[in-house]
Amino acid sequence: MSAVVLVVEFVPREGRARELEAALVGAVPAVHAEDGCVLYALHRDAAGTMVLVEKWESRDDLERHAGGLR
């Protein structure tokens, strides 16, 4: 199987950017420890939009990760 890459854009509600960023950054160590995680990185622009870039070794790895979010 080939790698799976996701690019997820978050536009936080007014006044909630710090809360969102803290939640996403807080998840990074645990996600990096998951089997198949190649990359899980958060980026933020000056306007406050956040982009999460994820790379997984396979679709199965991504689906296992997503299943843990429910």
From TrEMBL:
A Pfam family hit: ABM
Domain ABM: 4-70
Source taxonomy: Bacteria, Bacillati, Actinomycetota, Actinomycetes, Micrococcales
Source organism: Luteimicrobium album
Name of the protein in question: ABM domain-containing protein
SUPFAM superfamilies associated with the record: Dimeric alpha+beta barrel
InterPro entries per UniProt: ABM_dom, Dimeric_a/b-barrel
